[in-house]
Amino acid sequence: MAKLPIPLSRSFLLASCLLLLLYSALYLLHWREDNEHNLHISNNHVAGGSKVELSDRVLFFNRVPKAGSEMLVLLLGWLQRGNRFTHVRLRSSGPRHLDHAQQADLVAEVANHLANSPTKHISFDQHVHFTNFSAYGFENPSYVNMLRDPIEKIASRFYYARATPRPGGYTPSWTKPAKEIPPYSSLEDCMASGHPLCTYSTGRQYDLTIPYFCGHQPYCRELGNSAAL
Ligand SMILES: *[C@@H]1O[C@H](CO)[C@@H](O)[C@H](O)[C@H]1NC(C)=O
Questions:
Q1: 0.70 exceeded by the pTM?
Q2: Residue of minimum CA distance from atom 12 in ligand 1
């Protein structure tokens, strides 16, 4: 397998993509100027009452991991004040695929933030698979995401798991469950060895990009399942 360096031109490409995405995000966030807060959230909505228009007020960045999302989250944070929107970081740990009750909780949490938001427009980020707000009595928010070449993503995860935290750097207070690290120093060696953690076979479930667009059903996480597309 070829080595996976990131040449300068690719960094520029990534930076341009980021800017383009941000521009689109801001375009979405630069909604109409009226400041009316005419939305009333009640439990009826979550229980399947009349649908509430979310797409012109809520931007939901259900960030695909290892695809540069931290940068976009930072930018959203920096730009919120000047652009009159509020950015809310939802849980950064925890499961990415949710059961029905957890999805309902997520929708209710978004609705609650919206009801108490000081600004009309609000953006959220969370590592979470596509959640169909329509199934919970809301219209879907405007979704935005960032993608990365799947092989680079796998390489990034492989090496990230080996990185030692920066000395003196920020250490999150929550602790991740210890993940098994395959005993190879390069992804190429690990794949060539056929180690289970570096093997990808059709029909098995992995932490893929597709479910961030497909949803929480198990088939969305199955490699090569065409129903997920
Ligand atoms: C979302 O849910 C609604 C209502 O259950 C359904 O009609 C719609 O097809 C779903 N959309 C997606 C993208 O799954």
A1: yes
A2: 132
